[in-house]
């Protein structure tokens, strides 16, 4: 079984469920840029335009998770876990009105896990694959 690159906590899953009920299908993107820095941002699926400068890491609770390619260079050796905490972030992420914000917890992959990594796709490869199906 491949080692997943991104996981999600039960608390974050519950928040995703609330957001999905209100906004429909969702997606996540972690840019490492402005606003909340490297906080993952949750958008309605397709609301954030994914391109060749993004990397698809997998899915969490039915939501695609993307990261900017430059950020992935730093994080490629870590397993990311999306969690949620009380407090308002300074981003455009959908959870902000709920008084919570998503955050990332991380740990380095073990040597054994690194041998069985789940593959990643750049944004254009991802889009090509999803439009074919």
TrEMBL record:
<protein>
    <submittedName>
        <fullName>DUF779 domain-containing protein</fullName>
    </submittedName>
</protein>
<dbReference type="Pfam" id="PF05610">
    <property type="entry name" value="DUF779"/>
</dbReference>
<dbReference type="InterPro" id="IPR008497">
    <property type="entry name" value="DUF779"/>
</dbReference>
